[in-house]
Amino acid sequence: MIRAKSWQIVFLFLSSHIVCAQDVPLRPSPTALTYARYKDSYAKVTYCQPRKRGREIFGKLVPYGEVWRTGANEATEITLTRDVFVNDTLLAAGTYSIFTIPGVTSWTIIFNKDLGLWGSYNYNPKMDFMRLRIPVQDTGSETYESFTIQFDQRNSVADLLLLWDKTKISIPFQFIEPKP
After folding, report:
1. Residue 129: which H helix or E strand, with range?
2. So what's the pLDDT on residue 46?
3. For 125, which DSSP code?
């Protein structure tokens, strides 16, 4: 009798946790991850993917000339295990927030030392490690419904691609050859 009651209590406890776990809502802009690896180096980007959902993106939802978190929710972050060249400028190993300032013909890409930020509300330009300008490209006939970050890698060279709607930003990365 006591043994049966014990099993009933265990069953009720476990079933209540299963029901509670099902109440967790999915994020409208889910977290995503992309990475590139070359020998003993890697770059990993963690970001959130907003959706187009019929909206006009650049110049409207994401205004031109203003700092953007480069995604949704938390600010996008990149982690580098070794130094790399980004657009021919040395970016030291570490973790950085990636902010952008979209423009019609070019974007400013910002690698910032402040981490764990929600959006760009507390963006501090004094924490910028590097800024660079990258031209805007059109994706042609392809439209990206979800904001997408991916690496297009060719051995020690990679382009970090920011893709959304019909806009493409290609940031050149060069992994540094490890010393023997």
Report:
1. strand 128-138
2. 97
3. G
HSE-up of residue 163 (Cα within 13 Å, Cβ side): 16
- pLDDT tens, residue by residue, 75-112: 999 999 999 999 999 999 999 999 999 999 999 999 99
CB 133 within 8 A of CB 106: yes
Question: Which of these, 167, 166, 170, 168, lies nearest to 132 by C-alpha position?
Answer: 170
3-state secondary structure of 70: coil
Whether residue 76 contacts residue 169, with contact meaning beta carbons closer than 8 Å, is answered with no
- Letter for the amino acid at 11? F
Given a contact cutoff of 8 angstroms between Cβ atoms, the answer to whether 91 and 83 are in contact is yes
User: What is the C-alpha separation between 75 and 95, in angstroms, rounded?
Assistant: 12
Q: How many residues does the chain have?
A: 180
The pTM assigned to this predicted structure is: 0.83
Residue ranges covered by each domain of the chain: 27-175
Residue 127 sits at φ, ψ, to 5 deg, of -95, 5
From residue 141, alpha-carbon distances to 133, 135, 138 in Å are 25, 19, 9
158 C-beta neighbours (distance < 10 Å), count: 21
CA angle at residue 153 from 150 to 104, to 5 degrees? 50
Widest CA span in the chain = 77
Amino acid identity of 109?
A: I
